[in-house]
Amino acid sequence: MAALRRLALQAVLPGILFVLLSGGNAVAGCFPVAQTEARFLPASLPDGATVQITFLGHSSFLIETAAGVTAITDYNGSHRVASAPDIVTMNNAHSSHYTDLVEPGVEFILRGWDPDGGMATHRVAKDDLLVRNVPTNVRDISGTRYNGNSIFVFEVGDLCIAHLGHLHHALTDQHLADLGIIDVLFVPVDGGLTMSHRTAFEVVAQIGAPVVIPMHFISQGALAQFAALIEGRYQVRANETPTVAFSRQTLPRGTFLILPGF
């Protein structure tokens, strides 16, 4: 299904998968299926621009762009770096996934839920990074909390990166249309606190990203169980360090890439 979505979109929108900016450089567009107009980022980028990703622990990653913009996912106040990031995202109002005590210097604080109810909507651009969200639901003791989580999408260089956050269910066609074509996917693999391994595997198959990076391990056993499940679809590889750098030219397609840490 994911492969068909990708092929169909490329057939319908030839020439729009990359948007030319000043100087002839190209920038990614994840191009949601429901949207047919090209989207522009505010700055031109060097050819083959690289994005650096560092796993900080739990569900937090540091994303660093070629222009020096930084973002931390699932910012919870515990997994920080030496300098305050420009952007922080918090997918879910859960103690290990958000904080109200944000360090000085953060320019954009993006919560994946609306504290006043309703639906959170974000679309923030800073230099060579654009961040947007796709709301999803979560379980709680009272039943379903609608729009309580967001999948955040980071469009940087010529890559599109999606962080599933505390996703609790398989995706609808509308979710997939809003996400668009994803190159790198962060997926929770705890096996139950978010989704079962089978549901997580289904979501990975739905999105069809060339590179999948696990997070929210909870235990090495849970990680190993999911790796065994996915190894028929992806090559499982463990990285020696928590930091990787990707460009479209160097993207290790078909890889389930484990970064060290919890």
- Residue share in β-strands: 25-35%
What is the overall pLDDT average? 77
Instruction: Tell me, briefly, the overall form.
Output: globular
How can the largest sheet be summarized? 8 strands, mixed
CATH architecture: 4-Layer Sandwich
Order of helices and strands: HEEEEEEEEEEEHEHEHEEE
Produce the secondary structure layout.
Elements: H1 2-12, E1 18-20, E2 26-28, E3 51-57, E4 60-64, E5 70-72, E6 87-90, E7 108-111, E8 123-126, E9 129-140, E10 143-156, E11 159-163, H2 173-179, E12 184-188, H3 197-207, E13 211-215, H4 220-230, E14 235-238, E15 243-246, E16 255-258
Parallel strand pairs: 5-6, 6-7, 11-12, 12-13, 13-16, 14-16
Antiparallel strand pairs: 1-2, 3-4, 3-15, 4-5, 8-9, 9-10, 10-11
Task: Describe, in plain words, how this protein is organized in 3D.
With 262 residues, this protein is an alpha/beta fold. It has one domain: 4-Layer Sandwich (Metallo-beta-lactamase, Chain A). The strands form 3 sheets. It has an 8-stranded mixed sheet. The protein has a 6-stranded mixed sheet with strand order 7-6-5-4-3-15, with no helix packed on it. It is globular and about 45 Å long.
List keywords for this structure.
single chain; 262 residues; alpha/beta; Metallo-beta-lactamase, Chain A; eight-stranded mixed sheet; six-stranded mixed sheet; 4 helices; globular
